[in-house]
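As promised in the previous annual report, we have extended the structural survey to additional targets. Below is the entry for TerC family protein.
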Amino acid sequence: MTVSPLIWGVTIAVILGLLAFDYFFHIRKAHIPTLKEAAVWSSIYVGLALVFGVLVLVFGGATAGSEYFAGYITEKALSVDNLFVFLIIMASFRVPREDQQKVLLFGIVFALIARTGFIFLGAALINSFSWIFYLFGLILLITAGNLLKPENSEKDEANNFIIRIAKRVLPTTDHYDGDKLVTVENGKKVLTPMLLVMVAIGGTDILFALDSIPAIFGLTQSTFIVFTATAFSLMGLRQLYFLIDGLLDRLIYLSYGLAAILAFIGVKLVLHALHENTLWFINNGEHVEVIEIGTGLSLGVIIGVLTVTIIASLVSPAGKAQTAVNNARRHANAYLDLTYTTDEGERERIYTALCEEERQIAGMDLKYRNKVKDIEEIRAEVARAHEAHAKYISK
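The corresponding structure token record, generated without further manual editing, is:
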């Protein structure tokens, strides 16, 4: 698919315009998005991505259109998985909910920059070395295996490492000053935790790019499609975070679905590498006659796996129990942390949500509740939240 410089320029301008619009009209003034606001803007960004895909289909042909949609769906699924880690980072730094939008937008912008760099690097490697498909396929197969582990600890360890280095190198305070990155403490300028959060988010974005870029290159080698599918998958991620916040834990089988998709694309890459083989120690440097997986089949497999994964997660009694218990723990922790937010209405919202989740948990089968990790510790945290609320209302 040949794309003119004019189309490239217009596309980049539209993406930058969307990011600027997001900042000036939604992020500049700190606030907590309502469910309606998050739903409306999530729908708008998904709609824009679909319209762009239709334009690629019309002007680029069926193959280009299928490649775009396969890449967009895969990158969107991986982006949702990234939200789990963003949630952990912001919870560990106790980012006030009204300021979380700015952190997320920074994460999106940094992810777009990092992935764009990897995209052009990947394209250059592919054009120069066809054997790079072997490496990309191996990366995806290893990533798929890691996702099947009981706990995906590598991401957390990477986050902790980045955070420890940042704290050691940068003079910071433990207190937020709104959404400012720099404040004055004891007459000296210091960095607020807001900057540390952004450093942690940026570091994880680089790690995520190492997984996502080989995945989409396994579906298309068109740099334009890779870039646009990646960019549109990141657009609206901020709104999606607030829309599905509380439901992320419900998708208990998402990692298995992503593992299946990445393994499938990894195999597809290896088969393609064999078909284009130039390595002397494989078939004497000659191409290997193998079955290649078409874009239509790839798109069908991706959609099918994600559909089964999401439905299985939503109807699973274990998933419902895990969601309610983990949400109760998150809300209990938020309520106990008096510096979490200065918004009294937000404090009341958190406590109301905690009580509602307790009612849901009480109606669930005990065997599913008790399977949740650290259940006794979570019960103790919820009890402390009730004690804190009783003291608060007795004042």
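The CA atoms of residues 48 and 57 lie 14 Å apart. The mean pLDDT is 81. These points will be discussed at the next consortium meeting with the crystallography subgroup.
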